[in-house]
């Protein structure tokens, strides 16, 4: 098992990180039930991986609860990452990175996870309404109290990372050691500025959506409607307009052209499209850990193949070449599929 140091810290994490957004269900999303989710978590840990990622808003908090119950009895051998920022109520202080909201969010996450500490606590987004100094001092207080071990951020732009690290330096408080950005063959925006900034400011990366929201798993082809049981199929059927719009972009001509090249290479190597796409991301400079999001044990084992496969140099270079896009700095660090298909 390969472990790597997360950023400028002493924390060792596995190259594979189990993302748990698909565990539990909400009004608009049907994810894995607790029995299947626990099987996935146990199989992941039994293989020697140690890194689990969740958030307080995943399935309205059910994800954290499922993770907490699944790791009971082996908590000290697991690195649990969770996040705060998203809305939990309709009040003006029920979201964001203020001292008030983050303190409430951390305490609620600790309760749901059934633990007295979080290994990696992350800001899930940037808050324009709260001074970054207040956020970093609040997070430092969590570390000093022993309730949090390390700090990270998710979906920050390059300039936001710099602002946060400088604020921590000025105040003599705990800096971020990690970033969670979106990254895949169809979303490469972070290469222009975000990855270089992470290197300069000591942040490791745990990249999410390495399969392009499911577009690169081999199940989607041109002139075919995504199956209802796929993530993209669920997004297309969503009552939320932005979800339907994003789903359409994920099966755009450009994305499906890249998916077809991934499929061809998988056939040549006797592998699977998912394994090829995951392997490409894992081998990229600046990537510390890759977040996978299986909904079943079968999907988990399919994802494992991407961490065992070493792409030949020629295949990796071909994928790099055909997936290049103009450098665009995305809003909140999240690649906009509409920009990538322009």
UniProtKB/TrEMBL annotation:
PANTHER family the UniProt entry points to: NAD(P)-LINKED OXIDOREDUCTASE SUPERFAMILY PROTEIN (PTHR43364:SF4), NADH-SPECIFIC METHYLGLYOXAL REDUCTASE-RELATED (PTHR43364)
UniProt protein name: Aldo/keto reductase
Record GO cellular component, one term: cytosol
InterPro entries assigned: AKR_Detox_Biosynth, NAD(P)_OxRdtase_dom_sf, NADP_OxRdtase_dom
GO molecular function terms listed in the Swiss-Prot or TrEMBL record: oxidoreductase activity
Annotated NADP-dependent oxidoreductase domain residues: 17-322
Entry-linked Pfam families: Aldo_ket_red
Transmembrane regions listed in the UniProt entry: none
Keywords: Oxidoreductase
Native source organism of the sequence: Nonomuraea cypriaca
